[in-house]
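Fold this complex.
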Amino acid sequence: MFMFTATSLVSDVVIVSCFFLGFLYLNLRRRRHGRVRRIAFFHPYCSGGGGGERVLWKMIQVLHQLRPDLALVVYTIDPPHEHYKETLTKHVSDLFSLHLPPTVSFVHLHEYAHLLRPARRFSLVVESWNTMKLAHFALRMQQQHEQQAADIFVDTMGAAFTFLAATAWHGLKSVAYVHYPTISTDMLRVVVSDNNDNTGNNKTQQTTITTFVQTLVAKLRAAVKVLYYILFAICYGLVCGSLPSLVLVNSTWTRHHVDSLWMVAARMKRIHTVFPPCHVEVMHSTTKPVVLTREARTIVSIGQFRPEKNHALQLRATHTLLELEPTWKSTLKLVLIGGVRNDQDQARLDKLQELSRELGIEQNVEFVMNQPMAVLQDWMQRGTIGIHTVRTLLNVNVASLYHYVARALESTYSYSPCVHSRQLDRCGMNTLE
Amino acid sequence: MWNEHFGISIVEMMAAGLITIAHDSGGPKSDIITPPTTGFLATTETQYAQAMQHVFSMSASEQQAIRDAARVSMARFNDQEFEVSFTKAIMDSKILE
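Structure:
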């Protein structure tokens, strides 16, 4: 049953890819010409308060300055309400100090919210497919409501498969702002975890018919898995990467990866590094001296209580520091400032508090949760050190991707039937938890 | 999929005058911090601890030198720089024409 689902999914992908390639050829030939009047932004979580949202609103502001006549449409997952634009304008102004131009309008995709839910299996393909569908529905909805299609489609969320809908299907020009080459994270994590699994399960080798059959099934499953990787890599790297007319990347690091993944775009010199607009001005005013009365040994950490922020490392490092300098015990303080948005965040926070007790540093750690910007700025002024432990996990390009696939194959063929049912289950896991 | 991995909060901390110790990977390594002039990079808890020990042991003027250098360096990531490079990319691509 499971094998059937897996195989049928892969064959679906093959058929759909061929279909799109054909369409791409036809559609690129009938691309719209003439003056650009409408730009659509694919950013379903546009009412969020992260760095990605700041990029979106700043981009919109700059485009409005360049061409005030442009209609700028944002595709959002939020449901419509009477004062949606006013509320959002205030939110953007309060949080980012940015002004929303009057030419901004919204297409509400709340009816399709289910398409953004994380998939439990094959999340690479399923989630990509879903974002592509969402982009298609958005473009279609806009066309129906406004009687006019967009001319340019901008993805600011890293959902590269939306270009299949926008450019290959609807024939629009597209622009990408890439924060992170997402493709590699999932793949490497799966392969790495598989290899770990393998090391613990290679001991028992039985030679009964049952196990022979199990081995055969496992091999088949592994083959499907590898095929899945390769097809996805081709779709992401070669197909999606060749569609945008302009690719913006947020750092030299991302650029390095996008250059090797999106080879067509790189060869056609469509990739530009554009650092995200950070809110540097609000953090200090030029008239105010940077050094105030900084507290002797205060370390400040800023970030939501999410696993990738790796707060535990900060606690351990503080503990190690106190081992190096025991006399600092009475003056050292680590201040963890962050947002707790849900039960999982709260659970992680509880664990961190427990860890600080275990390490015996609870008097040296202060947790500051869900406080307004002013409190955060106050701590930034009082602290001496800022600590940041987010690891950018991976260094994968297409070449090393194939290396990992080869390793996956190797380890798979070293016989371990019971492991692989789990491997396939994990194929698409893309959360860090 | 929509996390930002550049390290905006690092830029903000540095702009606010915190001497920043960030993870030795990704954006912080490639673009943001030039150790030891504008901040420090670390990977293990020992490296983080040693970097913190080093900073706290510095004289006030040494600390101030790092703060000032970091602050100047962070101007590369302000709104005006974004406007300039984004506008240039749009114009070069001739996408609005």
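The radius of gyration of chain A is 25 Å.
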